[in-house]
Amino acid sequence: MASYNYHIDEKRCKGCGLCVSICPKSVLDVSREVNANGYFPAYQARPEDCVTCAMCCTMCPDVAITINEIIEQAA
Ligand code: SF4
Ligand code: SF4
């Protein structure tokens, strides 16, 4: 089974909460700590529930969320 690296770039996030509201699995939440720009960034509060549907990536107006498949290299 493929594994994925999920990343929210805190510096880009403006804390709009669109990703939080669109996620079908209620994985995301907004942090209680501000980032360098004074916004409360989104984070994966329940990463074990993520189905890597990428709806949050599509929704984010600031392109802050990336999901990359991890390619296992043969030794
Ligand atoms: S990839 Fe899908 S399930 Fe995972 S956090 Fe984003 S919207 Fe939610
Ligand atoms: S949609 Fe993007 S900018 Fe808005 S809270 Fe989510 S990651 Fe941050």
How would you describe this protein?
The chain has 75 residues and is α+β, with helices and mostly antiparallel strands. It has one domain (3-70): Alpha-Beta Plaits (2-Layer Sandwich). It is 13% helix and 24% strand. The chain has two helices and four strands. The protein has helices at 18-22, 55-59, and strands at 3-8, 28-30, 42-44, 65-70. A two-stranded antiparallel ribbon has the order 1-4. It has a two-stranded antiparallel sheet with strand order 2-3. The longest helix has 5 residues, at 18-22. The model has no long low-confidence stretch (mean pLDDT 95). The site of one iron/sulfur cluster (SF4) has 11 residues, from helix 2.
Would you give the CATH topology?
Answer: Alpha-Beta Plaits
Our measurement of the CA-to-CA distance between the termini, rounded to an integer number of angstroms, reads 18 Å
Number of helices: 2
- Rg over CA atoms, rounded to whole Å, is 13 Å
Multimeric state: single chain
Strand content: 15-25%
The pLDDT mean sits at 95
Low-confidence stretches: none
Largest sheet: 2 strands, antiparallel
